[in-house]
Structure formats: structure tokens, C-alpha cells
Amino acid sequence: MVTGFTVSTTTAAVRDLRAMTLAEAEAFAQELGWPRFRGEQIWRWVHAKLVRTWDEMTNLPREVRQTLAERATLGQLTIAEVQESRDGTRKLRLLTRDGKSIETVLIPDGDKTTQCISSQVGCAVDCQFCATAKMGLVRNLDAGEIVDQVYLARRLLAEVDPGRRISNLVYMGMGEPLHNYDELVRSLRILGDDKGVGLSMRRITVSTSGMVPRLHRLGKEDVRPNLAVSLNAPNDEIRDQIMPINRKWNIAALLEALRAYPLEQRRRITFEYVLLADVNDSLEHAGQLARLLRGIKCKVNLIPWNPHPEAPYQRPAPHVIDAFQNECKRRGLPTYLRTPRGDDIDAACGQLANRSNGQPVVPLRLRKLPMAPELPAD
Ligand code: SF4
Predict the structure, then answer these.
(1) Would you say residue 60 lies in a domain?
(2) What is the pTM of this model?
């Protein structure tokens, strides 16, 4: 967005400031012949003050803004649709500049809000119970598109729910974050930088289906978020069926990588276990799960399957879910039942697939935010 400035037809490379870490922005400023501090100044406008136009960068000389309009972009998303669940969960459908739809979900819990963000358009992993899998992988999101989900949500909450802040961030939306490794890590660096929005890594969780080599790599990074692992089965036989990735990296390889992951004090790995009726929900399965995870600092989140039309599964009956949880607990495995949130707007875990279920909610007040010109038909 370049309001008030002329965009040059120069052939020099145009760089996206929203996808840059602070160090990259400082280097970029120097490439343009400016001092390093100019890079920080610009970066703060984008990643701390969350501005969306050059005009808003009021302490920059006009010629600097003109050069930025020629040599950089503020690559960003627009809001196509906001849906609100009866439980207060909001799902935002966002459009990338090349017209792809992605989704992010805001889940209120008391005075806190957890935001679930996407890392890819679609997903290649093909978990059999997941609606996103049915899209296949369309493309990776770049770091700017990942962080802009957070920035847009902040601005939205400031307008519709002032005082409410995003307290936790989970990479559990569309996509397998470790499949988009470099942009994931770049986005963590941007979001974790104290000179930007400064989110603590303790408040960020990356969820993976178990890309083992990249788990090893993540363990060596200087930014290390919490880990959640989508396990969903107590043995290879079941996991091979419902998560084809298991045929490449089986449960033993996955657990070995997790045991090696350098957890900080008082942190533990979260295992997600989607309960599918008559597939992985018996007492025997609960016993196997408890044995499997013995000795790992962890907890298990049980997620009764959230229905969508493309998968042949059923959610287990409530008494089966209770029995499964009780058996895990009896065997000493900390196990929590996750109440589905936003399932009436297809915003619950495993349901994200750019579907519009019910009336879109786009309050007029949101017109201050960057709205897509029209709702595209998917
Ligand atoms: S559960 Fe996650 S990793 Fe598996 S297909 Fe869905 S989005 Fe991809």
C-alpha cells in the first residue's frame, strides 16, 4: 500500500518489509545507503506499531518514504470474512495478495485469547481426519503472511473488543509448520523480538505431525517455542492408517526426537490425540498410550473428533471419551479433554478448509481494517 507516493517502474528488486527480521531490515537500510538505525526505525513501524501504509510512518523524511514505496512493499493480508461462533470464537478468512484464502481463529478463554494461525495454504500431510488435508498443499506462507495474521487480529480486537489481548499463539491452523521450516523460524524471530510485538516463546506453541529431522533442527534454534505433537494413535498400525506421515517417520523415531528436544524447565510436550470412534478410543488403546509416553515430560489433550463432510469418522460417545480419559489418568498420564470451540462455524480443530458455514459477520466498525473488496467465491 503506497498511498501518497509514486511507485517507480524501476527494475531494482522490491523487498517485503513485513517478512523481514530486524537484522534483515537493518541490512536492507544499509543497502539503500541509509544508516542501520533507519532500518530499525522502519521495522518498528511495521512490526511494533503495526502500520499498514507508508503515510503512517510519520517520523520518516518524505524522501525515505518515497524510496520505500519504490523499493519495498508492506506485503499484507486483507480480511475477506469474519465469522463469530455462539461460544465467542471468531474465525477470520484472510486473502493473500495472490488471492489465496487462509484462516486464523481467535479463541477467548476468560480474559485471555488464544490465536490459532496458519503456516501454509492447505497442507501436504494428508491426515485422514483433517479437513485441511483435503485441500492438498497450495503453497507455503511467507513469514510476512504468518505474522500479519497476528497483527490483523490485534487490530481487530482493538476495534471490536478493546482491552482483550492475544495471550497465546498456536501454529495449529492450516498447514504443517515444520514443512515450511525457514518461514516458520523467521516468523518466530519476528514475533519474539522485544522491539516488535515481543511475544514470549513460552506463549507460542508449534504443532507438528512429526517431521522428525526438522524436530531435531528446531531443537538447535535460538528461538524455541513450546511443542505440540499430533499423535492420535497408540501404535504404528493405527497411526499408519490415519496419518500417512507415520510410514516415513514412525512412532519410535518420533519419540526419540522428542526425548532429545531440549525442553526448558517446567515445560512439557503436548500430545494431541483426536478421538475417533472405534478407531483409537478403546481402553486398550488408552493403556497402550500411557505405556508409550511413560518417561516423557508431557500431557495429552484429548480432542473428540470435530465432524466435517469429507471424512468417514464419528465422534465417540461421551461415556467412551470419559472412560478413555479416566484410564489414561489412572495410569498416571496427565490427560485433558478439550472442549470443541467454534465448531458451529467450522473453526474447531481439524475443520479449517475455507468453508463458510452460516452468515459472515463483518461489523461495519471493521471497515477501518483492510477489507478485501468483495467476498471471493471458493
Ligand atoms: S492435521 Fe495438520 S498436519 Fe495433518 S493434514 Fe491437517 S493441517 Fe496438515
Answers:
(1) yes
(2) 0.90
